[in-house]
Amino acid sequence: MLLQCLNSLHSSSTDINFYAADAHSTFMILLPAIPILLGVLLIRRDAMNASYEWMLGLPITNTIIIASKWMAAFLYASLFTLAIEMVYILFAWHQGLPWSAICSSVIYYSALYGCSFAVSAALGIVIGALMPLRFSLPIAFCGWVFGTLFLPGLLVRSYSLYPLKAFSLNHLLYNINNSGNEGWTAPLLREEYGLMYIFAAAFGLFILAASNALLARIRPVLHPKRPLFVMWVTLLISAAAYAPYGKLWFDRFQELHVLEASAPERNEAVPNEPYAFQIKSMKLDMTREEGNMLRMKATYVLPTQDGQLIPSAPNIHQVKSHIGGHVSFLLDPMLQVHSLLIDGQAVPWQRQGDLISFAQSLLSKKTEMHNIEFVYSGVIKEWKLAGNSEAFAAFVQDSSVFLPDYTGWFPLPGGDHLLMDKETLTERLDIIKYLRADFDLTLHGFDGSLFATIAAAPDDTPETRHFKEEGAQAPTLLGYSQIKKLTHADEPIAILTTAGNVQESETFLKELHQKRLYYEAWTKKPLTGISKITYMSINEQISGLMRRSPYGLYTSGDTLFVNAGKYQSITNRSQFVLGKLLFGDTVNIFEHVNEWDDYDDPFEKYSMVQEIRSAIINLPLTEQYAASEPTYLVPLPNEAAPVAISMQKMINAAFVNGQGDFVKRVLLHFLDKGLFIQDNTQNRTYSNDELAKQVPYLYPVITWKDWIDVWNEEKAGDGKDER
């Protein structure tokens, strides 16, 4: 499995951690069978075998016999762990991963193997001590299947019995929590796995004590009741060890219930736009204290007109209120609000789920600018179910930080709800669609590298982080201690990534810079819109990103988030980066935003916007093939449309005839007029009725006649008409 990394396709990731995660997942199913089998055979071979009655006279205790057999089975199984990790270290070293990242991965997976093998060996011994070999081997096989597949796959995943995870022999059946993201996985699971390891040690001790009690039936001891007493004591210790682990899951499900209570019923979500209102600025002071407690103060400048809120969305004339005569902000329901001040005066307010509301009459009509101050606090570590897996949607865990703009970690001005419905608890990415304001963030107590999707202020320091930008979109915060920030020469875009993606990202930056030079030389304009690309495994973090966007993309402020996956490299998604720089969006150039056959008169109504965008993205490739393979036609979207094929041939013929500059002038004409496509398909969070009214894409209409008119206008000097 790991060998794929050295021979991966251009479209596949070269991050060895993805391949290692898949390999570990497979090994964790198969390998626990070995210590279980060894445990059965070792105990039945002599201690529980009538042919070895001479062992009754050996001057060793039953405890030593059980402990030695458990140790032998555990150490033998651990040889597989050693072999697996040695292979990983070899390939990781070959790929150039830093030793800190390698050691972190080795420790994380070795601990999981050790926990599984320790309990498996004890399980095999107790099964062997309980019944003859002809019965114990089939029972051991059933125990292996139950512990590695049935329990984690059916009881835990399908029936959401997550508190039973501690009894599983396989914690990698699904690569949960983005195992390919070596920056976040271990820190986020540290508390859960730490408690699980303590329980596994106590429960394994109970199993061995039970084995000792069973052995005492055949090999008598001086104090016959002592083995049973020890067994019951270790059972009580196991129960005590499970208590904090069980409480962790109790707290997580309690938080889920709070989120469910704040979400609308299924199909009751409505558009956010009627509820959203403008803010002029927001200043946020955040301090992280011990235990990852966040204490925050958010101060807003709220504009009004004639005492009324100003809608932030177009075509909305009056802001709709959740509660008659009240102003409502949206805030994560897990955060506790301590006070609310308007123009320096404490005012009454009410909290309903994710809504914080106060009477609109408290806004003085004598002024059109009001200062609204929220003081609130809480721990943000939002665990959620994600299909058949689980994920942390937002978190601040030591140096690991991910606070998306849409989760309500600061009060959002208006909107329907933060979540889509009670069943899925999916975040509404469109909640901040029209939010633009002057943002000023000051952060204290954050270790490691921390980045925001707004610009860093001049006085930003590692001790006190300061981000500030005018007219910006809602900010997202992310970081962890070993995040890599990659730059290249004069390329203004930086890539934030994990250690495993460094080589791939560096190659992409070099290619991107060459493309930037090409397009800026052609358009005579700088390509802006992105200053950072975050390339790491973030699928489950951004609300099931791959389920919303098959290309794994999300834009927040000046940052483009690109999901890293085993079969998704950043290189094969360069068209989306170029699309964002050239057109202002990340719509796939091969997406059919409209269909030729949908129109009665397609020559007059069908828009060629995607064909033109594709021609611009493929411009360097078209030039290259025109010189080397004149008959080759670069693929265009929607080739079923006659105009697409005609346009393709026109462009290719012009380049072959040495008229490439003429084609570039035609394409530049349309690029200057704007080729932006608004994608509404990634935010389908409305009810079914509202969705039926929603147009999937909004785009400029460029007909075949428009194309020919510009073509002939640019070619007028040749005296030819292509009509």
Features:
membrane, 723 residues, alpha+beta, transmembrane, transmembrane helix, five-stranded antiparallel β-sheet, 18% strand, Immunoglobulin-like, Zincin-like
Blueprint (SSEs and pairs):
Layout: H1 16-30, H2 33-47, H3 62-95, H4 99-130, H5 133-158, H6 185-215, H7 226-262, E1 281-288, E2 294-305, E3 308-309, E4 326-330, E5 336-342, E6 345-346, E7 350-352, E8 355-359, E9 369-378, E10 381-386, E11 389-397, E12 400-403, E13 412-413, E14 436-444, E15 449-452, E16 464-473, E17 477-480, E18 484-488, E19 491-497, H8 502-523, E20 532-536, H9 545-548, E21 553-556, E22 559-563, H10 574-582, H11 602-605, H12 609-617, H13 619-628, H14 642-656, H15 660-673, E23 678-679, H16 688-693, E24 697-698, H17 704-714
Parallel strand pairs: 1-14, 19-20, 20-22
Antiparallel strand pairs: 1-2, 2-3, 2-9, 4-8, 4-13, 5-6, 5-9, 7-8, 10-11, 11-12, 12-17, 14-16, 15-17, 18-19, 21-22, 23-24
Helix pairs in contact: 2-3, 2-4, 2-5, 3-4, 3-6, 4-5, 4-6, 6-7, 12-15, 13-14, 14-15, 15-17
What is this structure, in a nutshell?
The protein is of the alpha+beta class. It has 17 helices and 24 strands.
Question: What does the model show?
Answer:
- With 723 residues, this protein is an alpha+beta fold.
- It folds into 4 domains: 235 residues, no CATH class; 210 residues, Immunoglobulin-like; 104 residues, 2-Layer Sandwich (Zincin-like); 123 residues, no CATH class.
- Helices cover 41% and strands 18% of the residues.
- The chain is built from 17 helices and 24 strands.
- Strands 1, 2, 3, 5, 6, 9, 14 and 16 form an 8-stranded mixed β-sheet that branches. A 5-stranded antiparallel β-sheet has the order 10-11-12-17-15.
- A hairpin with a 2-residue loop joins β18 and β19.
- α2 runs antiparallel to α3, α2 packs parallel to α4 and α13 packs across α14.
- The model has no long low-confidence stretch (mean pLDDT 88).
- Pfam families: ABC2_membrane_4.
- Keywords: Membrane, Transmembrane, Transmembrane helix.
